[in-house]
Amino acid sequence: MTPKRILLILLTALAFTFIGADLLASLNKPQFQSRLGLYEADLRLHVSEWQGDGDAGAVKKLLQDKPPILTALDEYKEVRDQAGKSLAQSLSQVAKLRQAEQKPAILSEIETQKAAIAQQEKAMDELDLRIGLLQAELPKQRGLSLQTWAPLLEKPNATGKAAQALTQLWSPEQSQIPSAQSIEQGLDGWFRYRALARLYERQKDEKALALLKSNEQEIAETALTKIGLTGALSIGSIGLGSLTALGLLGQFAVKRKESILSGINNVRWPVPWNAEVLWQVIIVGFFLVGQVVMPVLFGTALAALNLNPTTMTERGRAFYILCNYLGLAGGGLTVLYFSIRSYFPLTEEWFNVNAKGRWFLWSFGGFLVAFPIVILVTLANQQIWQGNGGSNPILPFILQSKDPASLVLFFLTAAIAAPFFEETLFRGFILPSLTRYMPTWGAILASSLLFAVVHLSLSEVAPLTALGIVLGFSYVKTRNLLVPMVLHGLWNASTLVSLFILGRGI
User: Fold this and answer.
1) Model confidence over 108-132: pLDDT tens digits?
2) What are the C-alpha distances in Å from 13 to residues 106, 268, 303, 458, 501?
3) Scanning 63, 144, 227, 284, which has the fewest C-beta atoms within 10 Å of its C-beta?
């Protein structure tokens, strides 16, 4: 066995260790979908305050087939239950670590877990604060709200002060009226509005109450527009995608071997390199250089500049994420180039990017077909992971971003840099290389699974595998790398647009 192969085996073991640890760590991280669900519930609560009429009033009623407070309460309780399970798992892990030999690595892991537990407890307190207020708005559950807030009253933070204020406002035995400051510091959105409205009613401050309600009407109208627009985009994409998929299945049933869906395994690539080169690109290019070397270099550079990503401005963080991704992509593509350059010139089937022909039709059609497929897989996936499993860490930044320059940087990262690099590596190199050793459908599935796993979130493995299969299929049928690049870019851009619409302007 050559020294190179021994080194690759060691690096592979290291890669499996790191990736496995990251995937296991994602078990205790909430899915972004859960956070997004609560955000949408908050928007619906704003809509419930709207006093509009006419056609917009009909839309409002359509969006509220169930009382929004009950819907929001169910969603908040579900997320609260999931958070409780995650906290229990974290506490169990710390207990096991304390029983182990107290080595420096173990002690460091305990401190990391303790910091995570503190964040989880803080998040649960904030959920309880909001759950109690939702209960207070329901006459039959008003007594439960005081029980929900009771454990928070002694907390020496903004959440505890807000719980004290809410208890004073809704408790029939309390005559003391709290200050608006404790409400404003501990609550936001609709929850702040309802608490302040209750405060001004108790104070009989009609002027402040009228101004508050006027501002809420503007927010409610904006929220209604957001929900209606994103709903229309989602329903339209799912509808067109479903029709396209059914059309393809109908064509396959009639034409069989002459249909678009057939003939995949007849497509092969002339692969001049062996499995060791493929192995080297994946482990050295994507893992070692992209996941270890480049982050260390970036971390060293930030330390030298006395910069910390967690304390950066919104624009600075967006620029950092873009640079970090470009470093990962640049390192991976450099290793790919030097690994295969001895086989140059390659035949025209390799890394073909052709702007002629019906490439956009394939890209847009693939995007439409992917939409209902990934949505169905995501819905089933949520039942498995129950709100845990982690998500892409930049999605919350995009949802909360208010800076246009930051949104442009996020767009460059997600809709341009990521599709270019990931499609070049996974569809342009890995998928064709695997056709030397397995049927083409097997190569599509294997490359898609690898594509999903390296995103390091258990909850995203199934949906990203489904997306990867559509990307791989489109590439195999066209042999034009521009098709999956644009399809991938459309997918990421549609996510960015939806988050931009939902998050902007409230």
Assistant:
1) 666 767 777 888 888 889 999 999 9
2) 21, 31, 29, 20, 43
3) 144
